[in-house]
Amino acid sequence: MAEHLASIFGTEKDRVNCPFYFKIGACRHGDRCSRLHNRPTISPTLLLSNMYQRPDMITPGIDAQGQPLDPHKIQEHFEEFYEDIFEELNKFGEIESLNVCDNLADHMIGNVYVLFKEEDQAAAALQALQGRFYSGRPIIADFSPVTDFREATCRQFEENNCNRGGYCNFMHVKLIGRDLRRKLFGRYRGYRVSRSRSRSRSVSPRKRERDYDRRERDSRDRDRDRDRDRDYRGNGRRNDKYDREGGRKRHGSPVREGSEERRARIEQWNREREEKQ
To answer: Is 277 helix (H, G, I), strand (E, B) or coil?
Structure first.
């Protein structure tokens, strides 16, 4: 029974825990959801809810006065926002991923997800964002359970054929240009840029960007794994790191768990709680 519950945790078959909150960190039912939203007390990922205010918020491609907007102006507005947020959050540590939702549903519109390399970096950023405002609006930040954006993003949207449009319950991630991505993420060790000169004309720009993102993510994952192997030598314990500012030792965040490990850990907690009762 315990193995069965662990295997279905966070899936549609789980009648106790909300699968959408588990995968996306947001649910259209909010606090009225009939299933549990297990909010993490610590996570490398922060969710800044409804932070990005797109200029065509009411009707896509149309401004508040009913006039059509130039798509280039919309993208320019977004990239200015993206760079502004990145530079501010980068003060707290290395950013592995910064995703902004292009969805239109209330629980996802303008959501910003930032994945830090370490959990303590995310905690420092969360503390610093408390009580702050952006463009006259309060910043609503919290830890998010999402650590694998491949499970959270809409694959149909990536293929440009999602029939639910902006009201899809999976992330429609708004993309930035290659030059801006190189400028922001290129400062980190392990960042790679494709130098292929030949590209097929039949490949869509979205697919090229998606392939580029996949290559970038795989490259950074390999570098992170190499670092982890160096840190876990001998008896498997991680080497101590020194805080450059204070000169004292501190420990990095634990290795990030996958979905199966998280399900098993939660099931173990449930068994221990039942035994105590």
So the answer is: coil
Rg of the chain on CA atoms, in Å: 20
Reported as a single tens digit per residue, the pLDDT across 48-69 is: 999 999 888 777 788 878 888 8
208: exposed, middle or buried (C-beta count within 10 Å: 0-12, 13-18, 19+)? middle
Q: Please state at what angle helix 178-185 crosses helix 205-231, rounded to 10 degrees.
A: 10
| Domain, as residue range, for 76 | 1-187
CA atoms of 184 and 90, how far apart (whole Å): 9
Tell me: pLDDT of 38 over 60: yes
Put residue 210 in one of left, alpha, beta given phi > 0 → left and psi -120 to 50 → alpha: alpha
Overall number of domains in the chain: 1
Q: Is residue 149 part of a domain?
A: yes
Q: Which helix (H) or strand (E) holds 114?
A: strand 112-116
